[in-house]
Design a protein that fits this description.
Mean pLDDT: 83
Structural class: alpha+beta
Number of strands: 10
Strand content: 25-35%
Helix content: 25-40%
Length: 177
């Protein structure tokens, strides 16, 4: 019985010391804290809080700065698309030249290492046709003349000129006339 009484006294002292430490910390926090919290709080009525449901935003009343679209000309190729060569295509009466693509004439013939002739002009134009027809294309364009534009395009976030220039052509050694 005496052991239990001593344990209860020890437990009471530990609890008392713990309460004194927590109380001292709370009192010191109260003394150090500024009377007005300078941290800006989001007001629930401001509309700037993230929501779990879609909310219509009126761009004329939006306080955020918008980045201009780097690729404002967007299209999905349809029947009106005509590929002229591997760097040029026509769409709805306008002609577009892809910047950064080395032009290969449509009727160009090439020879491989064994001397066999290849229709490299047709193959290169077919590659552009395939690249344009399979995806949604975004372009930035600069007018060169009436209905003629220099474009920098991307397909699925990848630079179209880089895609066309990265095709293996190492087996082509010379152009045959």
């Amino acid at each position: 019985m005496r052991v239990i009484a001593e344990l209860l006294i020890l437990f009471g002292r530990v609890c008392g010391v713990l309460a004194a430490v927590v109380g001292a910390m709370a009192f010191s926090s109260h003394l150090v804290a500024s009377p007005v919290d300078a941290t800006p709080r989001m007001d629930a009525e401001s509309g700037a809080i993230w929501t779990s449901v879609p909310v219509h935003i009126d761009p004329s009343h939006q306080p955020y700065e918008r980045e201009p679209d780097r690729y404002p000309f967007k299209f999905s190729a349809g029947p009106s698309l005509k590929v002229i060569d591997n760097a040029t295509f026509s769409l709805k009466g306008d002609t577009f030249v892809i910047a950064g693509v080395t032009r290969v004439a449509p009727r160009a013939l090439c020879a491989d290492l064994q001397g066999r002739r290849l229709a490299c002009g047709q193959n290169a134009a077919g590659l552009l046709r395939t690249a344009l027809r399979r995806s949604f294309i975004e372009c930035s364009r600069k007018a060169l003349a009436l209905k003629l534009f220099m474009v920098s395009c991307r397909r699925d976030g990848q630079d179209l000129a880089g895609l066309l220039n990265d095709t293996p052509r190492s087996h082509l050694v010379a152009s045959v006339r």
